[in-house]
Amino acid sequence: ELHIEQGPTLDTSGEQIGVVTDIVGIRDMKIAFDGQQNHAGTTPMHLRRDAFQAVSAFNAALNDRLRNVVTPQTVWTIGHVALHPNASSIVPGRAVFSMQWRDADADRLGRMEQIIRDTATEIAAQQGLAVSFGTMLGLEPVAMDPTLRTALEAGAEEVAPGNWRKMPSGALHDATNVSRKMPVAMLFVPSIGGLSHTFEEDTAEADLVAGVQVLARAVTRLGSVT
Q1: Euclidean distance between CA atoms 36 and 90, whole angstroms
Q2: What does pTM read for this prediction?
Q3: CA dist., res. 171 & res. 73, Å (int)
């Protein structure tokens, strides 16, 4: 699968091609803190059971607790927060938020899950709130097929000698699901400014052409194998 990187690695390094080593696994679940909805003007700060304050405390604590578990490629994101009743003059009594994390190592994903659950439980207890966890969603990490990957690497060296790298994919791709049925491999070309999932997303035409050339050489090489 030929794809734009959707990240900053190639654009920052100035390299033209990335040959993917593996596609990260992903875990995604909703977490909810339940406190007490109350008047924002008359409820003293020390008596509040503010669900959003728990989200804030959880986020700060989690960043610190994951520090010795993760790698520079590991990522985690709170991407959506819903407050109830979501009004400027009412202390939020309920906060539901998304918690997503990604890594190429399934064991690390599991360790991160335990830290996330423990941290949320501790924050809830400290602030007098209840916490609940939604259904866990996700996909397992996928390593690229060695034969296909070797062909892409050879093609990359022909098209962009010394100007390519091996790299993991932090984004999910069709190849993740296709890997259940057949061998897969992936090729990246740079994303300008490392931007993706935004209207500014773009890739230089010369890099697109180079990517297609690498793919063509890989296909030719694989086709000549008897």
Answers
A1: 10
A2: 0.87
A3: 11
pLDDT for res 42: 97
138 burial via Cβ count (<10 Å: 0-12, 13-18, 19+)? middle
Distance (Å, rounded) from C-alpha 10 to C-alpha 189? 7
Identity of residue 14: G
Q: Which two tokens stand for residue 135?
A: 């259904």
CA atoms within 13 A on the CB side of 214: 34
Using only the alpha carbons of the chain, give its radius of gyration. 22
Record the tokens describing residue 112, joined without a space. Answer: 């991160």
| Residue 17, Cβ density class (10 Å: 0-12 exposed, 13-18 middle, ≥19 buried) | buried
Length of the chain: 226
Q: How far apart are alpha carbons 91 and 46 in whole angstroms?
A: 13
Residue type at 117 in one-letter notation: R
CB 164 within 8 A of CB 57: no
Residue 110 has pLDDT above 90, yes or no: yes
How far from the centroid of its chain's Cα atoms is residue 226's Cα?
39
Given a cut of 90, whether residue 172 has pLDDT beyond it is no
